[in-house]
Each structure stands twice: as structure tokens, then as C-alpha cells.
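Hi team,

Below is the intake form for ABC transporter ATP-binding protein from Neoaquamicrobium sediminum. Please confirm the fields before the structure is written into the shared record.

FORM ID: S-0412
PROTEIN: ABC transporter ATP-binding protein
ORGANISM: Neoaquamicrobium sediminum
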Amino acid sequence: MTNIQRALEVENLRAGYDAFDVLQGMSLHVGVGERVGLFGPNGHGKTTLLNAVSKLIQPRAGSVRFMGESLEARSAQEIVAMGLVHVSQANRMFPDMEIMETLELAAYTPRARKDRKANLEHVLELFPRLAERRRQEAKTLSGGERQMLSIGVGLMCAPRMLMLDEPTLGLSPKLKDELAVAIGKISADGIPLLLIEQDIAFVLSLVDRMYLIDHGEITREVARGGDVDHDEIMDMYFGGHVSS
Ligand SMILES: Nc1ncnc2c1ncn2[C@@H]1O[C@H](COP(=O)(O)OP(=O)(O)OP(=O)(O)O)[C@@H](O)[C@H]1O
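The structure came back. Fields below:
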């Protein structure tokens, strides 16, 4: 039996839209049980990376392996069924569906169906706000509650790894804190994470390691507690530092 050390391994990935390559041959990895951040300016390829890994767009070159298995011939649905789950920014929920219906529907793969009851209990425990509003329709949820529901939907797919695309976008500091606690608990369960975030302090508080992305390439890797100067990074990316 092979001893898998890397949950996700991306090598020289190229992907983009129309004639334009956004990812210029990107390589990165996430270890089993590891939490990894992706940080970079708007429009430099973070979401494109997650889309190409989960096959929402077709990569043009390079390779992606999940738990040692190549994803080359796999469809987006098969990748979810394998347990690689991408929680996107788009919040595409069925607006008229209640929280409970939405969560139950998300457990559609054979693996997820098997553990539906336990996963549902876990999600409602992790996000008490969703439990309180279990009969509320998705369209009436606040932005923060919708983010929680998106992550809940991801967890109902029985993930062996989660990729989260800016889960704190537009949230108040209090909700950000709540979400940070929930994300911390998810990774404490041993689920590897790849987390896109614009808030550098937030991402560094949650991950073991962080990649910096610039123009579709990884430019630097920063270990947690490593030598990172927030102001320098904000200057590098945004041309002037932003205080939080
Ligand atoms: N469907 C699409 N069709 C054409 N171009 C696209 C499409 N989606 C994204 N792009 C372009 O690809 C580039 C990278 O976008 P991407 O969403 O990956 O950036 P990002 O780093 O995730 O940014 P943000 O932090 O703003 O979400 C941008 O120039 C964007 O306009």
C-alpha cells in the first residue's frame, strides 16, 4: 500500500479563459491534514486555480493528483464523489429551498449518502445559526448565514479535503470570528484545507503555510509564524498598506 503524504498535488498547471492563460504553470501541494492559504491581489488567478482543480474549467496543461490519484480523466462530479470539495464564492443556492432541504440535497454522492445523518448533525452543531433557522429559505439568509450554508453544503458532501474561496468576503468582524472558529474545528477533524483569503491576518491565523500568488504564478511561500511582514506584503500587492 502506498503511503499518501499529499492530499493535493498540482504541477505546472495552465488554465484560463478564451485565448488567455491565467495560470502560467502553477505548482503547489497540500499535505494530508495540512491547512494551506492562498493570498494574492484580485484577478491574479486564485479562483481560476480552484476552478481548474475541481474541473469547473478544463486545465490546458499540467497535472493534478488528489490522494495520489490523477484527476486528468475525472469529471467535476467524480471529483466531488472522490471527496475533493470546492466551496465557491458564488453562493449558488436554490433560493426557495429551506436550509434543511439544501443540506440534505447536498449529500448526493454514495459516500455522502451513507453518512448523511451524522454529517447533518455535525453541520448544525458547527453552525448553530443554521440550526436555529433550519426552516428558513436560502434567499432570506444574511450574507454570513449564506456563507455558513455554503460551507455546510460542502461538509454534507463528506469531504476528504475542502477548498474554500474567500469564505469571509463581506462579513463583519464578529461573523468572521465565528467562521474562523468553525473552520478551525473542521481542520481539527483532520480535513485538509486550501483557503483563499484577502485578509492576511485572518488567513495566517488559520493555516500552517501560505502561498503568495501574483499574475498566475506562486511567488513565495510563507510558513505560519514565519518571517512575514504584513506591511511589506500589502505594499507589494496593493501599492500601499491597508490597516485592519
Ligand atoms: N469566466 C471567465 N471568462 C473570462 N475571464 C475570466 C473568467 N473568470 C475569470 N476571468 C479572468 O481571469 C483572471 C483571474 O480571475 P480569478 O477569478 O481567478 O482571480 P482571483 O485571484 O480569484 O481574484 P479575486 O480575488 O478578485 O476573486 C481575471 O482577469 C478575470 O477577469
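SUMMARY LINE: Residues 17, 22, 40, 42-48 surround adenosine-5'-triphosphate (CB under 6 Å).

Thanks, M.
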